[in-house]
Amino acid sequence: MVLDKKTARILNICGGALVIAFIFLANGTFGSFTLRIFNLCGIYIILALSLNLINGFTGLFSLGHAGFMAIGAYVSALLTMSPAQKELNFFMAPIVPILAQVEIPFIPALILAGSAAALAGFLIGTPVLRLRDDYLAIATLGFSEIIRVVITNLQPVTNGALGLKGLPKFSTTLMIWAVAVLTIVFMAALVRSAFGRSCRAIRDNEIAAQAMGIPVARIKIISFTISSFIAGAGGALLGHLMSTIDPKMFTFSLTYNILLIVVLGGIGSITGSVIAAIVITIAMEALRFLDGSLNFIFFRTQGLPGLRMVVFSVLLLVVVIYRQQGLMGKQEFSWNSLFNSALPRLRKLIPARKKREAS
Which letter does DSSP use for residue 251 in this model? Predict the structure, then answer.
């Protein structure tokens, strides 16, 4: 069974309407804790898609996303905090005068935060993207740590290791999921475009892509810059959801969490990143009890902070060894595949039900 374009378009509209209705329903009915986890799912979808654009669709092994998230979070925070709130935060050293009285609405600040991260991505990517594989991963990880160290020591601008507290809570459910939906739509359009096909060609065989006339260096830099913009916007949303930021938030462990989502969902799959972001975010909270003391029948363990991450690390190893393509591989959700997989099962069930009724 193959659906025509009109039917598929109608189903897409109905599916989108159901998703939007569920977001509004969740915003009105979920408790504060459940709603916070729901919002974290939306933010991790944004961050996973940004990393998947580099690692999955372009084939560049980057580990520097925490640095771009930090840039986005700090830029948005400094642009949206009130002068009074800045004065309360910067008690060790006064804030630079040019930022002391700045206060703009959140949406322009979000765009500027993403733009600042994109600029950093462009400046870093231009020399670094000449490297490949493990060397690229080490270089991007190094730049991420450099960004974190600079933020820690730039006291008059970032408030150093003390961080920034009392950020306005602009990351509402509707704002986060609006950005998440826009990111999904943008990524889907980007992947289907000529630029997306060029990215996949570079991923599959860089030498062959260059021989076909694809400007490999330019495509890599553009992809890295777009990914940095999305990561910066995601970092800004995360900062305003937590209402406090400090350099310790943006260590390699944050990049690892996003990389875990991308690998488990499928490197090169938008659908896989969305599903894995939701499942992993919920599982991280559901398994939080592992960090505390565990009472078994014959013995009791003391608190083991980080044990839940050991579980996810083991899961990652199992996936890498036995199912390297992840949950979805490079496949995407489509109505045709859904109906084609569901109809044969229904046809088997209906005759069996008729036989039972006849007997």
Answer: S
